[in-house]
Structure formats: C-alpha cells, structure tokens
Hints:
The chain folds into two domains: about 10-45, no CATH class; about 45-238, no CATH class. It has one helix and 14 strands, in the order αββββββββββββββ. It has one helix at about 20-35, and strands at about 50-55, 55-60, 65-75, 90-95, 105, 125-130, 135-140, 160, 165, 175-180, 180-185, 195, 210, 230-235. It is elongated, with a radius of gyration of 24 Å. The two termini are about 20 Å apart.
Amino acid sequence: MADWTTIADGVLEPGDPVRSVDALALRDNPIAIAERASGAPKVLGALKSAQVFRSNDTWTKPAGVGHVIVEVIGGGGGGGGAGAGGGAGGYARMVIDVSAISTATITVGAKGSGGTSGGNGSGGGTSTWADGTNTVSATGGTGGNGSLVDERTGSNGGIGSGGDIVGVGGAGSGAITISGNLVGGQGGDICPHGAGGAPETSGTGRSGRGSGGGGGGGGDTGDAGGVGADGAVIVTEF
Length: 238
C-alpha cells in the first residue's frame, strides 16, 4: 500500500525546483487515495445502492460497500384536538466509513397520534442508526396542544444529533380564532422529506405526509387532531 504524504502550502511554486520527496508524493498520493491509506482524503466512489427503512430492522452491509451516507428522520408529532399542529421530526446526516462495520441497528420513530377534542397530540418517536461505533439519532416532534380556544403557542420540532449535519424539525403552528371560528394549527415540515398536515376550520386535522411531517390541528370544538407521519432511516451506499 502506498503512503499518503501531505504537501505543505507554498512548496510547489511556478519556477521553483521540485524536491524529490514532493515528486514522490505527487506519484504516490493518487494511489494512496485509491487504496484508502491512513491520512489520505476519503473518496466515496460510485453509488452502488440505497435502502429506505420505515420500520425497525437491521442494516447489513452489501458486498463491495465501503462508505454510506445515513439520513435519520424522527417521527412527526400528532396535532392537538381543536388546537395546534404537531411538530416535525428532527434530522441528522452522517458519512460513515463502514470498511470495519458489517451491521447496524435501525430504529424508526413512530408517528404521534392526534389529540381528541381539547386534548394534546402525542409526540413522535426517535429514529436511530447504531453500528457500535457511531450513533446517529433524531427525536420526534412534540404533539400539538389541544385548546378549544385561541392558542397561538405552537409545538416544537424534533432535534438531530450525532451527525455531520443536524437539523431541527419545523414547529407546528398554534390555533387561532378568525371571526369567532377556531382554526387549527398547521403541522410542522421537515424539508425535503416530510410535510405537515394542513389545519382545518371544521373537522379532523390532516395527517402529516412523507417522513416526519407533523399532524394538523383539529378545526373546532369536537374535532380531533391529525396524526403525524412515521420517521425513516435512509442509507445510501457507495
């Protein structure tokens, strides 16, 4: 295996002689990258496959896969009965070298249920990738508050952790009163994976869509909130 040699900035300048050590590095470094030598930049290589997990499972490394991009989305919270929309699930993304990893435990956060009239929606569940070395997680969105009255306080989105990139799910909006009529809150979004359920002026709030979207709030007295959307774990393999 070729060794990786770092060439310092300013060493190779136009018109300057090239040292033998730098010439050897220019020859050997591309080989070191291809062979994934210690210290060499990591190149993902060609896309081989992708898997989307929508329920608890075990990921098993396919033959020839050296790296994966893991995306974790928490479950969406349910909307409040005659109240606020549910928060969207959180998000986390991580590039992982799986050359020494063969399996990972996948946990997918469940959707939150909508609250009955005046009752709070339930929170979404936490989604997780755990391979014994890396743990990438995203909590679910909180359930919307049931109100029966004008309630401008919305619900919080879930939070990602353990990734190279982490994000917070969109908050569900609070219910409002317009011309004496209660209007439920909009469910939170987690773009581009999930959209919040639409609120209602009368009737059960709409369900969250995609992965991790929050449920819409119920529209009026006696109306239940919409359910959130289940979370997901997406594994792109290189």
